[in-house]
Amino acid sequence: MTSDVPLELPGYAHVYSGKVRDLYAPLGGDGRPREDRLLLVASDRLSAYDHVLESPIPDKGAVLTQLSLWWFEQVADLVPHHVVSTDVPAAVAGRAVLVERLEMLPVECVARGYLTGGGLNEYQASGSVSGIELPGGLVDGSRLPEPIFTPSTKAPVGEHDEPIPYEGVVAEIGADLASRVRDLTVRILQRGNEIAERRGIILADTKVEFGMRGDEVVLADELLTPDSSRFWPADQWEPGHPQPSFDKQFVREWLTSPASGWDKNSGEAPPTLPEDVVAATRAKYVEAYERLTGRTFRS
């Protein structure tokens, strides 16, 4: 279980804490934080509906870190990643990586192969998602004719990412770079599904973070995890209603159920998760890791 208070890590200075991750800078020989490296620590915190929940999910940080490392290897021929080393302080072993500090792109790169969530809401209102016209008659869980790029803004903690059209990405980072990250995001989702479907899992959509190493686009943060993607069991896929999932959608559904007694529009913080929901969520994260990688999870 992790605390909201950043860990004291000898040789590192705390830089920033996000919804799920904590960033530290290694100290150089002069005792000052280095500007070319970061220690990226995945906590067991879980965010939902723009709130960081009080209840951590045991081993979640380790699952996200180890699954991301595995996926980085699977897409290495498509795009380089930011990981420098997994040799990290013992206090965060298994859930931290030393990474290259990059100039991060100011947009969330999202690809969808199936229609659900915010994309479904947008489609039902306008017949399109992020300005992309889609065929009529699609329902929750429908497979799209081809994966689409549906970017969003990068909101601060506590605020909501908002969908933007592709033209908004072009205006933000330029036409050439926008085209490169659009194509990479879609190819990553396609590669992910080629692998996942052989293991009985559908990757409905995913969010990818990119940074720049000079003129080179580099993968950063996490990749194809239950926090950044929707994972569905393929043998239970049935369009027309919400799908069973291996991701935090399970927690979202409990929070909006009568059992929680919480109104997501109330402005109040969500309630503490019951122990059985915490245990079931951990089990889903671990199962996703083991089914995808073929490895036994060890925290």
Distance between the termini: 12 Å
Roughly what percent helix?
25-40%
The CATH C-level class name of the largest domain: Alpha Beta
Structural class: alpha+beta
Q: State the shape.
A: globular
What assembly state would you assign to the polypeptide chains in this entry? single chain
- Total domains: 2
The average pLDDT is 93
The fold-level CATH name of the largest domain is D-amino Acid Aminotransferase, Chain A, domain 1
SSE arrangement, N to C: EEEEEHEEEEHEEEEHHEEEHH
CATH superfamily of the largest domain: ATP-grasp fold, B domain
Unreliable stretches (pLDDT < 50, length at least 5) are: none
Q: Please, how many helices?
A: 6
How many distinct beta strands? 16
- CATH architect. name of the largest domain: 2-Layer Sandwich
Radius of gyration: 19 Å
Question: Strand percentage, roughly?
Answer: 25-35%
Q: Quick one: biggest sheet?
A: 7 strands, antiparallel
Descriptive key words:
D-amino Acid Aminotransferase, Chain A, domain 1, 27% helix, five-stranded antiparallel sheet, seven-stranded antiparallel sheet, alpha+beta, 299 residues, Phosphorylase Kinase, domain 1, 2 domains
